[in-house]
Amino acid sequence: MSVDGGRITTHVLDTSKGVPAAGVRIELYALHRDGEKETKMKVAESVTNGDGRLDAPLLDSGRLEQAVYELQFNVEDYYAQQSLEELGQALWTVVPIRFAVSDAASHYHIPLLIAPGGYSTYRGS
């Protein structure tokens, strides 16, 4: 894994249990706008490991471009494996997060903190 160039990484934590969220499928799309028309092109896909992280960056040096990207965290299957009595009714199926890459040489770490009734994100390091 190159640490010299730009890259996109993420991790997912289940804040309702205080544990990493393993087995969450994540898709990364590059978004392109032509006038009123927006298109999405899938550029990467991965699944979180036992630590709630990915084994490699979604995009790394040489592939990251200045663009708008969308991460789609497919949390429905993760919640389907949990006890609903313990969690309550899970609301989220897919959590989309759009962000702009303005410097293709930078590290964009976009974590997701999930719970059955809410989520939050931030730019990590």
From TrEMBL:
Catalytic activity: 5-hydroxyisourate + H2O = 5-hydroxy-2-oxo-4-ureido-2,5-dihydro-1H-imidazole-5-carboxylate + H(+)
UniProt EC number: 3.5.2.17
Residues that hold substrate according to the record: H11, R53, Y122
Domain (Transthyretin/hydroxyisourate hydrolase): residue spans on this chain: 8-124
InterPro entries: Hydroxyisourate_hydrolase, Thyroxine_BS, Transthyretin/HIU_hydrolase, Transthyretin/HIU_hydrolase_d, Transthyretin/HIU_hydrolase_sf, Transthyretin_CS
GO molecular function ontology, one term from the record: hydroxyisourate hydrolase activity
Main enzyme class: hydrolase
One Pfam family it belongs to: Transthyretin
PROSITE patterns assigned: TRANSTHYRETIN_1, TRANSTHYRETIN_2
UniProtKB keywords: Hydrolase, Purine metabolism
Gene Ontology annotations of biological process type: purine nucleobase metabolic process
Keyword hit for rRNA-binding: no
Record's subunit section: Homotetramer.
Role noted for this protein: Catalyzes the hydrolysis of 5-hydroxyisourate (HIU) to 2-oxo-4-hydroxy-4-carboxy-5-ureidoimidazoline (OHCU).
Similarity field: Belongs to the transthyretin family. 5-hydroxyisourate hydrolase subfamily.
Protein name: 5-hydroxyisourate hydrolase
Organism in which the protein naturally occurs: Paenibacillus xylanivorans
Source organism phylogeny: Bacteria, Bacillati, Bacillota, Bacilli, Bacillales
